[in-house]
Structure formats: C-alpha cells, structure tokens
From TrEMBL, chain A:
<comment type="similarity">
    <text>Belongs to the binding-protein-dependent transport system permease family. CysTW subfamily.</text>
</comment>
<dbReference type="InterPro" id="IPR005672">
    <property type="entry name" value="Phosphate_PstA"/>
</dbReference>
<keyword id="KW-0813">Transport</keyword>
<feature type="transmembrane region" description="Helical">
    <location>
        <begin position="72"/>
        <end position="101"/>
    </location>
</feature>
<feature type="transmembrane region" description="Helical">
    <location>
        <begin position="194"/>
        <end position="216"/>
    </location>
</feature>
<feature type="transmembrane region" description="Helical">
    <location>
        <begin position="27"/>
        <end position="47"/>
    </location>
</feature>
<dbReference type="GO" id="GO:0005886">
    <property type="term" value="C:plasma membrane"/>
</dbReference>
<keyword id="KW-1133">Transmembrane helix</keyword>
<feature type="transmembrane region" description="Helical">
    <location>
        <begin position="262"/>
        <end position="287"/>
    </location>
</feature>
<dbReference type="GO" id="GO:0035435">
    <property type="term" value="P:phosphate ion transmembrane transport"/>
</dbReference>
<protein>
    <recommendedName>
        <fullName>Phosphate transport system permease protein PstA</fullName>
    </recommendedName>
</protein>
<keyword id="KW-1003">Cell membrane</keyword>
<keyword id="KW-0812">Transmembrane</keyword>
<feature type="transmembrane region" description="Helical">
    <location>
        <begin position="146"/>
        <end position="165"/>
    </location>
</feature>
<feature type="domain" description="ABC transmembrane type-1">
    <location>
        <begin position="76"/>
        <end position="283"/>
    </location>
</feature>
<dbReference type="InterPro" id="IPR035906">
    <property type="entry name" value="MetI-like_sf"/>
</dbReference>
<dbReference type="InterPro" id="IPR000515">
    <property type="entry name" value="MetI-like"/>
</dbReference>
C-alpha cells in the first residue's frame, strides 16, 4: 500500500518536472522569437513609411528643405567617397598588422600587449574615436571636416575588426602549405605572399567587408567631427566636404517633429542604407562560401 | 669561345648574387616594416589617451575636479555655468540599466534555446537572422525609438515626455540581445556533451541539466557577455541622442528627458563650442569619464571570463 503511494507521488513529481521542462522550452522559444519579431516590426515600419518616397528624383536629387524635392545623391556620393578612403587604408593596415602578429611576432610581452590593446580598442565607444578624429585630423592636422578626415577616423574605428578577422583567416591556413613552400626554398615573405595570403584571402575579404558595412552605418564619429546639415555641393574627391546616409537620417529624424514628412524621408534613406548593407553582407557571404578552400 | 662562355656564367653568378643580396635585404626589412604598421594600433590608444588627458587636465584647471565629480547640476551654457557630471552619469546608468533589463533575460533565454533545445537545422536558420539584428545601424534603432516606440509608450504612460530615457533604453536592449545571446551561446556550447549526458542519464530533465549543469559551467562566459553588453550600452550614442533629448536632469524618473554622456558630447561638438572655452574642454572631461567606464567594463569582462573559466 505504502509502496503504491510512493510510486504515485513520484509519478506526480515527475509529471511536474516534465511539465516545467515543456513550459520553459516554450518560453525560451518565445524569447528567441522576440528579437526576430522586433526586427520584423522595425523593417515593416521603415518600409511602410519610406517606400512611397523612393523615386528617381529622391535618389539623384540634391538636398532641399522642401520634402517634395529633397534628394540624397549628395549623401550617397559622400558614403561612396568615404569608402574610397576607408577600404584601402583599413585593408592595408589591418592585413599588415595581422601578418606581423601571426607570422613574424615573437611570443613575448610586447606582442601580448599589442594583442590586448587591439581587444581593448574594439571596445572603445565609436564616439571616442570621433573625438580623436576631431582633435587630430580635423584640428591638429587642419584637414577640416572633409572626406579624408572622416575616412581616417572611420579607418581607426574598424581597424581592430579587420585585424582580428585577418588574423583568424591567416591562422586557418594549414601549416603544411607553408612548410611545403619553405621546403622548396622560398623565403618567408615569398611564402606569405604567394602561398599563405591567397588561401587566406576569402576570409580576410569577408572580415573586411563586414567591417566596411559597420563603417557605412556608423554615425557618431562623423557627428562629432562636425558634418554640416547645410546644403553642400556634391563631393567630387576625398578633399571635399561631405555628408553620408546615416547623417542624413539623423538630421531628418531630429527635424521630424517640425516637418512630419521628414520622418518619411528618413525612412526612405534608411531603406537605401539597408539595401546597401544587404548587398555588402551578401557579397561577404558569397565570397566566404564560394572561394574558401578546404584542405 | 670557351672563354666567352665562362665569363658569361661568371657574370650570371655575380648578377644572381647581387639580386640575392637585394632580396635578402628586402626580406630582412619586412618584419620591421610590418612591426611599424602594427604599432599604429598602439599609437591609436596612445593618441586617444593623450588627447583626452591633456584637454581634461586643462578643464580641471578651470573647474575643480571635486565639483565635476560630485556636482548634480550641469548648466554649461548659462551665465554662471556649473559643470557637475552626475546628471550625465545618471542618464547613462539609467538607460543602460533599462537596456539590460531587456537584453539579459531575453538574450540568455535565447542562448539557452539555441544551445540546448533547438535542433541543429533550426539553429542554423535562427542564428543568421539574429545576427541581422546586430547588423542594423544604431541610427536606424534611434529612428525606431523616436518615431515608433515613444508614441506607443506615450499611449501607455500618459505622463511620458516626447523625449525620455525609457524608450531609447528599451530599444538599446533589443540591440544588445544578439550580442548577449551569441556570446552566452558560445560559452554554453563549449560545455562538454559528456556532462550533459551524465546528468540526463541520472534522470534530469533538459531544464534541470541547463540550470544545474550547463549554466554553472558556462557562468564565466555568460557573465562576461553581460558586462560587455553594459559596456556597449554605456558607449551607445545615436539612439539616446535622438530619443532621450538634451535636458540635463538629475532624476531617476525614466519618463523624463535626460542626457547621457555620449549625447552631451554630440550636443557640444554639434553646437560649435569655440575651441578654448570651458564648455569645449568639458567635452573631453566627459569623454574621459566615458572612456574610463567602458575600459573598466571591458577589462572586467576579460578578467571574469579568464579567471573563473571552468576548464574541462
């Protein structure tokens, strides 16, 4: 009799525990969905507000205080010129640093210090880079708020990302390739240039593109450098004053309490920005999947 | 004829030697060349510290450091300016706290679902979608907070101001979810399968395994992800600049407009404060405070994940 009771008690307890497990699983799943639902709402909201405002005139026109006539060609060109500075500078500095750390650096305190320093730099808020750019590039070097100054600031900001990604790509290159090349009499640099780098290139490019997409969406450093909200001529070189897509979104969002239609213009600009990011990220994924060699 | 040929070969050898010496020279100079480039990252840090430090020292010559650190009033542009940093610290702390209220539970539960419950196939589908959330520029979140979340909250809380710290805090939380989810999931996935199987074999449910085996084993990584999340929230700029306004309130009422440290920096640089004025120098003092806060958090996160890591 007692035995049966005990068994029943155990069964009840077990059922409770299994129930708990099921309920929790449901809650965990809903939590996972939460983020995705917010993403969907955000995208829907931006699309529904902005899509009607995207037309040829908006994409190719000049800025204007009149929402009917405002266009974002200047911001598109500004973003383009900014990338012309950021892409080569970060690629060169990032890959060179990664090659040094992975291929040449001795395992000593100083190398460790550089590595820790890169990790710490990745955690510095972007706005602090803006202050560095403002003080060093805009004021001390007296460049003013031109594309070059903004580009160099952005380059420093995304440099840690490119370095770490390149390091990982270099580390993933099998050692036997390197040893084979060295064994055939190639020098270290020849080996790196002709054997290691080509194999690591897809990984490096993927990291660099993802870092670039971070730079395209970044606003804070440029606000600090002082990008004017005024109407300026289209930038034609890296020495011109400029504005970029996120800055345009920022100003239009701020002013949307004055002119309601500015919110729509901001949404339309966001669509353009997100499409650019989508193209960049997809190309990164394609490069990673298509060109990564497996050994 | 024979002589000519010998001469040629000799020449060839000479040429090769010369070429080789050039190659050797080039080869030897590469490490130092790369080393110089690698030090740029160190120079960046030095640059940041020196810029912030020199201008902050200049600021403290004009405003006593005690007034800056303990002052609860910030009126940089008034006739009798006051430079207390506490209103900004309060705004920053409140917005970060609200963000963590959203990001910690949801991020952690997402990590648990992905690492413990989801099938491999589902996980491969869900993870890239969450990464999408992390890839959205912060300015877009700012737009979302200001034009969508704030109006909705206003319907729920009648006393809410048009700019307030609650709405950007919540949106910032959503922004940080993927970061906490992905770092925590990494920590939980690296707990050896044998430990789970041991507990399951003893009759534990999946929830019990997660709670009593996986989470304790991955705790250092999970806590590090929280700390990094806080650091991210403290340094976040555009969401709060747009949606929390520029009122330098010293209050804990989250329905009010408040300014964070980052938003103050944006306001001052955007307002063309003349170089050399006290307001201009205050920018650097605030940036220094921000830099110290985030640096401490990042160092703490690394310390936690190293020191308390369970190695199996």
């Amino acid at each position: 009799m007692e035995h049966v009771q005990e068994a029943q008690q155990f069964e009840r307890k077990l059922n409770g525990r299994l129930m708990m497990n099921k309920v929790s699983k449901g809650i965990f799943f809903l939590s996972t969905l939460f983020g995705l639902v917010v993403l969907a709402v955000l995208l829907y909201r931006v699309l529904s507000e902005g899509i009607a405002y995207i037309n040829w005139n908006f994409l190719t026109g000049k800025l204007s205080t009149n929402p009917e006539r405002a266009g974002i060609m200047g911001a598109i060109l500004g973003t383009f010129w900014l990338m012309i500075v950021v892409a080569p500078v970060t690629m060169f500095l990032g890959v060179a640093t990664a090659i040094y750390l992975e291929m040449y650096a001795k395992k000593n305190k100083f190398t460790e210090f550089i590595q820790t320093n890169i990790a710490n730099l990745a955690g510095v808020p972007s706005i602090v880079y803006g202050i560095l750019g403002l003080t060093v590039f805009v004021r001390a070097m007296d460049l003013g708020n031109i594309v070059l100054a903004g580009g160099l600031t952005m380059s420093l900001l995304i440099l840690p990302i490119v370095i770490v990604a390149s390091q990982e790509a270099l580390r993933a290159v099998p050692k036997f390739l390197e040893e084979g090349s060295l064994g055939m009499g190639a020098t270290k640099w020849q080996t790196i240039r002709a054997v290691v780098l080509p194999v690591a290139l897809p990984g490096i490019l993927t990291g660099a593109i993802l870092a670039l997409s971070r730079a395209i969406g970044e606003t804070a450093p440029l606000v600090v450098i002082g990008i004017p909200a005024l109407l300026i001529p289209f930038p034609g070189s890296i020495f011109d004053k400029f504005t970029v897509l996120p800055m345009q979104i920022y100003y239009w969002t701020l002013d949307s309490s004055l002119v309601a239609e500015y919110a729509n213009l901001a949404a339309a600009t966001i669509i353009v920005l997100l499409v650019a990011l989508l193209v960049l990220n997809s190309s990164a994924i394609i490069i990673r999947n298509k060109f990564t060699k497996r050994f | 004829m024979e002589d000519q040929r010998e001469k040629n070969i000799r020449q060839l050898i000479e040429e090769r030697k010369q070429k080789k010496s050039f190659r050797d020279y080039f080869e030897k100079s590469i490490p130092s060349l790369l080393f110089v480039i690698a030090s740029i990252s160190v120079l960046t840090t030095i640059g940041i510290v020196i810029t912030l430090l020199t201008e902050t020292v200049e600021f403290f010559k004009r405003v006593p450091i005690v007034e800056f650190v303990t002052g609860t009033v910030l009126k940089p542009l008034s006739q009798n300016p006051e430079f207390g940093v506490l209103p900004l610290v309060m705004g920053t702390m409140l917005s970060s706290l609200i963000a963590m209220f959203v990001a910690v539970p949801i991020g952690l539960m997402t990590a648990i679902y992905l690492s413990e419950y989801a099938s491999e196939k589902l996980r491969k589908r869900l993870k890239p979608m969450l990464e999408l959330l992390a890839g959205i520029p912060t300015i877009v979140y700012g737009f979302f907070a200001f034009t969508f979340v704030t109006p909705i909250l206003k319907n729920l809380i009648p006393g809410l101001e048009a700019t307030n710290i609650l709405s950007p805090g919540l949106v910032m939380g959503v922004m940080i979810i993927p970061m906490i989810a992905s770092l925590s999931e990494d920590a939980m996935s690296s707990v050896p399968q044998s430990m789970r199987e041991g507990a399951l074999g003893l009759g534990a449910t999946k929830l019990e395994v997660t709670r009593k085996v996986v989470i304790p084993a991955a705790l250092s990584g999970i806590i590090a992800s929280f700390v990094l999340g806080i650091s991210r929230a403290i340094g976040e700029t555009m969401i709060v600049t747009i949606a929390s306004g520029s009122t330098k309130n010293f209050t804990v009422d989250v329905t009010q407009s408040m300014q964070t440290m980052t938003a103050y920096i944006v306001e001052v640089t955007g307002g063309d404060a003349p170089a050399g004025s006290t307001v201009y120098y205050s920018l650097y003092a605030v940036a220094m405070t921000l830099f110290i806060f985030t640096l401490l958090m990042n160092v703490l996160a690394r310390y936690v994940s190293r020191k308390f890591r369970e190695v199996y």
